[in-house]
Amino acid sequence: MTAVGLSMTINGGAAPTVATFGVVNPATGDVFAQAPACSRGQLDEAMAAAQTAFWTWSADDKERRVVLGEMGDALEAAADRLAPLLTAEQGKPLEDARMEVGGAVAWLRYYADLETLPEIVQDDEHGYVEVVRRPLGVVAAITPWNFPVALAAWKFSPALRAGNTMVLKPSPFTPLTTLALGEIWREVVPPGVLNVVSGPDPLGAWMTAHPVPRKISFTGSTATGRKVAAAAADDLKRVTLELGGNDPAIVLDDADPEQIADGLFWAAFFNNGQVCCGVKRVYVHQRRHGALVAALVARAKAARVGDGTQPDVQLGPINNQPQFDRVSELVGDALTHGAVVAAGGSPLDRPGYFFAPTILTGVVDGTRIVDEEQFGPALPVIPYRDLGGAIERANGTTYGLTASVWSPDIDRACGIASRLDCGQVTVNVHAAIRPDLPLSGHKWSGFGVENGPWGLQGFTDLQVLARPRPHAQRHGGIGGWCDGVPVTARPSTGPAIVPGATGVCLRWNRSRCRGLTALSR
Ligand code: NAD
Fold first, then answer.
1. What ligand 1 atom has the least distance to the C-alpha of 145?
2. pLDDT tens track for 9-32
3. What's the count of helices (H) and strands (E) in the chain, helices before strands?
């Protein structure tokens, strides 16, 4: 697959490329491909196609499950072609790129297999009431650049399964793999069900302001999330916002630094720290601080940083120039406020957006790298004396995505979970990301839920369906209860059938009936 030449997918086919924008390989800093820039007219076409496709697509859940399964198979078959493209535009090592594509396959299969049954609220002689989930219509899905394939899968898998159709837009920093997904599935997904468009940031704003979508599913920064929420408000579009994180890891005084260092290091540095639910701050009891810093520094120095296409590379470049500048700025700010570099601390002297894995000590609360999301390979390791104070500091930012507690005493660690204000707490590991587990940010980390049945429900509105018991309908429209058993019946007097009326039970013949109640139509 060549990067140049990928087109947008609108109504099941290739949309003509009328304008383009450059895509940079972060390992070189050079533009290596052109991606199509969607015009307003093309966005209208994509929205119209999604709207037209909705009625047929939403009607047949069995068909949707089959299509999702086929999407998973097609994606799995294309993984070896997609992974190098993902590495080229995102920077991550090839192995991690393969893993990300594999994750998207797993999400598709999970939602294809998920049993979705109506919730029955009442099923007795007085009636039958169920709560069902109805799809919303067209979903506008907008994704960031750190996991373009996986985070798109968190949206299209549940949204399509629930019966919605979609217009999907990747980040302008990483549009290519998402465009490739559209191409791969042209033969699999019915026209209009999943449209893929690409373009610079204003395209996102056009989508959120567009009159067609009934839901916006957004993953990205808190700053943009606010704009999305504001844009959705006028039209009361449903919104799910998966936003930034500033996740704390709390290391208790009984933790063995050497034992936990691998887990903690990679929880902070996987994907070069560009993970919403990665460790962004470590609070460690002061008795363990020195040993933990030493163990993390050893790993930072040993990590193999380089072009993700090269074998054995563990950490690629930062994805883009603005993010590289931000990490440089936050590390510089920490150093001017008394932080000490224990490892790294500066960019690597080579082309591309490479930054040495950085461990900082001497960082105090109130420093930007503690209070803000760095989203890059720089980790402050902060000592504490009193656990209550550490919990307070862990909760002391505007974010609340995930957190972890590290200790061999599991009960003690679990006891701290209820005091942490975030969507997920894990013990001796950071973040549990699986298709069946919800991810939902507290505070500025988000609004709504992704993944699991909860994520699917986010692509639906509730509908109450109240009716006579199904049995009654099956037997010519008149039914009742005899001795607790639903029966076919006929009224003893007149045509009026109301709950509680008497009638003739056709179950035993009238002579054997022991009391017919609650006739209903
Ligand atoms: P970003 O907010 O800059 O961009 C995200 C997406 O929004 C891009 O596709 C962009 O083109 C689009 N966009 C930009 N302006 C828009 C507007 N006005 N209206 C609609 N869309 C617009 O974020 P980013 O830099 O791409 O991603 C990094 C951020 O994403 C980090 O803060 C990270 O924590 C967060 N993130 C969160 C999760 C999560 O699940 N909570 C997952 C991954 C990343």
1. 26
2. 999 999 999 999 999 999 999 999
3. 15, 24
